[in-house]
Amino acid sequence: MLKKIFAGYVHIPLVARVLIAFALGAVLGVWASYMPETSTAQINAIVKPFGDVLISLLKMVVFPIVFFSLVLGAASLPLKKSGKLGVSVLAWYFATSVFATLFGVVLAMAFNPQMASFAETASKFQGEIEQFRSTSGGSTGFGTFFTSLFTNPFQSLAEGHFLGIVVFSVIVGLAARFLLDSAKTPKEEQDSISVMLKVAQGCQAVSFKIIDWVMEYFPIGILALSYTNFSASGVDLFGPYLRIIACVVCGTLAMIFVIYPLAILIFCRENPYRVLAKMRLPILTAFTTRSSAATLSVSMKTAQKIGVSPSLSSFSLPLGCTVNMDGVCVHLPVFVILGSNLFNVPLTTTGLVALLVSVVFASIGAGGVPGGSVFLLFMILENAGFTPPQIGAIVGLALGVNPILDMFETACNVTGDNICTYIVAKLHKMLSPGGQETDPS
User: Fold this and answer.
1) Higher-confidence residue: 328 or 2?
2) CATH topology of domain 2-427
3) Which residue has the higher pLDDT, 235 or 69?
4) Residue 274: is its pLDDT beyond 50?
5) 8 Å CB contact between 290 and 419
6) 223: Cβ–Cβ under 8 A, 6 or more apart, which residues?
7) Burial of residue 48 (number of CB atoms within 10 Å: 0-12, 13-18, 19+)
8) For residues 286 and 300, what is the distance between their CA atoms, to the nearest angstrom?
9) Which of 119, 332, 354, 372 could pair with 366 in a Cys bridge, judged by C-beta atoms 3.0 to 4.6 Å apart?
10) Position 296 pLDDT exceeds 90
């Protein structure tokens, strides 16, 4: 009997199981939000670890996948083509970040967010502000991005610094490619390098198999994460924050279902919603886990299935997870405009240009972790001319609604990474319907 039930459960498509788990968790979470705080806390203490385990499992396997995939990807690319691909990916990420920021500013000014009794709402979260301020370390944006490129690779792997892992892995792969192509390299060395790459290929295959196993746990973890998010917030959250939520949600959904599909239609000349449907699992994973880093392994597995060359996806997706944060770019201007309305801080044309530059470069430091955008508000608001007490109040408001907005924001981030990778693959003839890598030369 149990075997039949399990077989029927496994037979249901994974995406359907994830959607059902999310909906069930949301309903149970909202219901639990009406229970006494002590009861809710006791239930959360039992349920929350099941969601944390899912994120931990994804993070456990993401770093070996990134390292081995990047080494193999860089080693398989002809050296003359590597620069073109890198520029194409970076140009796309920068262009979409600028557009998303402009879009976020226009939306925020159109929605013109306000909040009655904002001081009372913000005061509930003042205890968390200093913790966020100290965690952010006070240094974000381009400076952090540049100095993080070259770090001890073992330290980067241990501490989960994606930039250090990406750069070191690409350098190792390119060095291997150079030595294999060089006539001066002794045959013994070339044979050793070939063996090293075969070992990396085996490690990558093992990592992907682990991801297949983790996928079967997905619905349980998603149910727990969904329950935890909604039991903490409940429907009461939507009252004072309604206009803010509407602004960010409309902005991120427009990016996902209008702007990105339009880009696919223009550059790829194919039905964009069919492409988007193929990427539904990483988008759903990002929405529920609220972490680009935790979603990366799912994105890479999906890219492999839809035929994107591993040479490209193993470079583009880890980089996008670190530097491409379109959802953050839509989200942050909303709280700057909100602060301007609450404290009568005028935003001039020069101020709006400064806001655009600040958000684009600060988004590079968002980090791909849940709540990462809150770290950036300190710098963005300071650059916009707000005083420390005003910044504290605005960040307090952001903390109150962050669990809800972060889901939409992260889904937008991950969609941007996957769409960029797909478009660049299509333009560079690195896309094959059967999922096998095409010859990039």
Assistant:
1) 328
2) Proton glutamate symport protein (1.10.3860)
3) 69
4) yes
5) no
6) 21, 22, 24, 25, 50
7) middle
8) 13
9) 372
10) no
| CA–CA separation, 378 and 89 (whole Å) | 29
Give the C-alpha separation, 394 to 383, whole Å.
Answer: 14
pTM: 0.73
CA 240 – CA 128 distance, rounded (Å)? 20
Mean pLDDT for the stretch of residues 123-141: 49
Strand-pair partners of 324: none
362 touches 138 (CB < 8 A): no
Calpha distance 427→340 (Å, rounded): 42
Model pLDDT for residues 345-358, shown as the tens digit of each residue: 787 788 888 888 88
- Cα dihedral 18, 23, 27, 30, rounded to 10, equals 80
Beta bridge partners of 431: 308
Please give the radius of gyration of the chain, using alpha carbons only, rounded to the nearest integer.
22
85 Cβ partners below 8 Å, 6+ apart? 77, 312, 315, 424, 428
Share of the chain above pLDDT 90, in %: 20
Tell me the residue length of the chain: 441
Cα 121–287–289 angle (5° rounding)? 85
Taking 70 as the threshold, does the pLDDT of residue 34 lie above it? yes
Q: Please name every residue paired with 308 in a beta bridge, in sequence order, or none if there are none.
A: 431
